[in-house]
Design brief:
Elements: E1 5-6, E2 20-24, H1 29-40, E3 45-50, E4 70-73, E5 76-79, H2 81-91, H3 102-113, H4 115-127, H5 134-155, H6 167-177, H7 180-186, H8 198-209, H9 211-215, H10 219-231, H11 239-244
Parallel strand pairs: 1-3, 2-3
Antiparallel strand pairs: 2-4, 4-5
Helix pairs in contact: 1-2, 1-6, 3-6, 4-5, 7-10
The structure holds glutathione.
């Protein structure tokens, strides 16, 4: 599948009747959520990648703010990664990613919200020059990750979804995949002792082996290159070159 990211002056590729279309960006963690769900459920779709630093004019008709992801299903447009993933899970019940039981499903949705503070610290640590020692960032990460660690502990399973990854796992994974970018930026590993977030570390290793997340894996180095493009305000980053390197 082509990874070309379409920018200003481009035209939207012709739509294929009856086929879902995901508007994405190869390195966006939110778009990755939708791609993980599409893959886990084997849902036929095509992908149109958007150059977020030079957005195509036509894309604002799909998403008023020009953000990714967006899902097109016939004449329905769904935006927001969690809404897209919920929509896909309901419409394509094979390999359900949430628990069937409503209270358990509601609880899973609650756990997904716990990633919010993690993405906040992640963005500050990677995208800003906020001056902090690695030790301090590590402590901050641990405090926002602890609720997820506690959840795994109370479940007693490798994955939040049980024996296999489920919706919570796929909604959290994109940030775990990118965690190594922190080591690249700061030139050192976070100072974690064995008793700090051990279950989440085990979970991360297991998720790396999951066939669905492996297939979409880019890893921290390539993600970091894209971050550098953004930080250096390069107007037309060659996502395509990075994506195929
Ligand atoms: N809350 C949104 C966040 C989507 C988002 O922030 N996407 C970023 C790319 S990772 C984006 O489109 N940025 C372009 C912009 O903000 O203009 C979701 O969950 O889908």
């Amino acid at each position: 599948m082509s990874v070309k990211h379409l920018g200003k002056g481009s035209e939207e590729p012709p739509r294929v009747e009856g086929l879902l279309r995901l508007y994405s960006m190869e390195f966006c963690p939110y778009a990755q959520r939708a791609r993980l769900v599409l893959k886990a459920k084997n849902i036929p779709h095509d992908i149109v990648n958007i150059n977020l630093l030079s957005k195509p004019e036509w894309y604002f008709k799909i998403h008023s703010e020009g953000k990714v992801p967006a899902l097109l299903d016939g004449d329905k447009i769904i935006v927001e990664s969690l809404d897209i993933c919920d929509y896909l899970d309901e419409k394509y019940p094979e390999r359900p990613l949430y628990s069937a039981e409503p209270a358990a499903k509601a609880k899973e949705k609650e756990i997904i919200q716990k990633i919010g503070p993690v993405t906040g610290v992640f963005a500050r640590a990677l995208f800003t020059d906020e001056k902090k020692e690695v030790k301090e960032w590590t402590q901050e990460f641990i405090s926002v990750l602890q609720p997820l660690e506690d959840e795994l502990k109370s479940r007693g399973t490798t994955y939040f979804g049980g024996e296999k990854p489920g919706m919570v796992d796929y909604m959290v994974w994109p940030w775990a995949e990118r965690a190594g970018s922190f080591v690249i930026k700061f030139g050192q590993k976070p100072a974690l002792s064995d008793d700090q977030i051990p279950l989440l570390r085990k979970w991360r290793k297991a998720m790396r082996e999951d066939p669905v997340s492996s297939e979409l894996y880019h890893g921290p180095e390539r993600f970091w290159k894209v971050v550098l493009f953004k930080l250096n305000n390069v107007e037309n980053p060659d996502y395509d070159k990075v994506a195929s390197s």
